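Tutorial, part two.
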Amino acid sequence: MRRTSQYLAIVVIICAVISLAMGIVFIQQGFAKEAFLVEAMQQEQITIDGVEGIVDTPEKAQTAGDTVREHRHGIAPTYGDLLGGGRFDPTKPQQLSYAQALNLENYLYLAVASFGIFTVVKVSGVFMAVTGIALIATGVVLFRLARITP
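Running the prediction step on this input gives:
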């Protein structure tokens, strides 16, 4: 029984170390990818009326995306209305402006979603790390109890 308890404690400690390592990787990747996106957005130098400075945060991206959507709907309420049953014609300035606005809007909303994913990844990493620490403590206590118990 004593040996089985020690083996169980060792398995718990191994799982704990794996959980801790995965948590650290999740946290690091969350911060790294967020920094990459912020840098990429700063390089693009996107500025929109109603947004102070360069768009490089989720709040600014959301506001800018909403602004672009509003302006795009000023061109035409829907893509179907823009085309009027026809095909996209890039030689028509109105259709080209609409398509460019749609592209920018998608870029901004994708950035908003990405920032949310980075937050989820970092929080998941913290949870894994805390769980790993708790499991390490549990494994150590189990191992010590197994050594004491006859």
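The CA atoms of residues 61 and 108 lie 5 Å apart. In part three we will examine how such features are distributed along the chain.
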